[in-house]
């Protein structure tokens, strides 16, 4: 269960049953923001399905001791979602600055926000 999460943390989460191409089940996700006053954490699901890199708004992540991923993975930025803290199972690690900068850039572009 979640006991504090900060931007860039990689957690094993349990995503609820999805529809169509929505990600579901137990999988890693990267924390974007923990909104404590609303009791939700905004995350980006991560998949080991490298073919998903063909979609727009994705980012490949190399495994490292720091991020806790065991295989090359893809952050599915376009599937950003808010989760209840009860869905967090275990902290795996933390993404490096380069990966987070790329994800931030993709988020800004996808959401059409100006920095």
Number of domains: 1
Please give the CATH class. Answer: Mainly Beta
Mean pLDDT: 92
Instruction: Give the number of helices.
Output: 1
CATH topology: SH3 type barrels
SS class: mainly beta
**Extended strand count:** 7
- Inertia-based shape: globular
Radius of gyration: 13 Å
Distance between termini? 33 Å
Q: List low-pLDDT spans.
A: none
Q: DSSP strand (E) fraction?
A: 35-45%
The major beta sheet can be summarized as:
7 strands, antiparallel
- CATH architecture label name: Roll
Can you write the helix and strand succession as a string?
EEEEEEEH
Helix percent reads 10-25%
Tell me about this structure.
The longest helix has 14 residues. The protein has one domain: Roll (SH3 type barrels), CATH 2.30.30.110. Strands 1, 2, 3, 4, 5, 6 and 7 form a seven-stranded antiparallel sheet that branches. The mean pLDDT is 92. With 115 residues, the chain is mostly beta strands. It has one helix and seven strands, in the order βββββββα.
């Amino acid at each position: 269960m979640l006991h504090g999460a900060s931007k860039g943390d990689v957690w094993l989460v349990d995503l609820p049953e999805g529809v169509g191409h929505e990600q579901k089940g137990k999988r890693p996700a990267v924390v974007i923001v923990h909104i404590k006053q609303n009791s939700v954490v905004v995350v980006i699901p991560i998949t080991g399905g490298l073919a998903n890199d063909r979609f727009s708004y994705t980012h490949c992540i190399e495994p490292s001791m720091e991020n806790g991923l065991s295989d090359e993975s893809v952050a599915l930025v376009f599937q950003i979602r808010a989760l209840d803290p009860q869905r967090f199972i275990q902290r795996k690690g933390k993404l490096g600055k380069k990966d987070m900068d790329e994800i931030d850039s993709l988020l800004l572009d996808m959401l059409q926000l100006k920095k």
